[in-house]
Amino acid sequence: MTKPVIADKKPAVLELEAGTYYWCTCGQSKNQPFCDGGHQGTEFTPQAFELTEKKKVALCQCKVTNNPPFCDGAHSKL
Ligand code: FES
Which residue range is the domain that position 24 belongs to? Predict the structure, then answer.
């Protein structure tokens, strides 16, 4: 399996409104941590996630978290 690109070795800490978001799994989006369609032609697809209320989140940008789309600290081992 192809490995994703490491977009950054720290999470994107954002305060997001309630809604549906598409987290980039391939690491190639220019709009990290969200999908911009840059995965086309690869085996990756974005991962949808939903927030039911306004929330501060830490979204993984190294793309190797075991709790996607959220940071689990995996970037510290890269
Ligand atoms: S650009 Fe990375 S999953 Fe879409």
Answer: 12-77
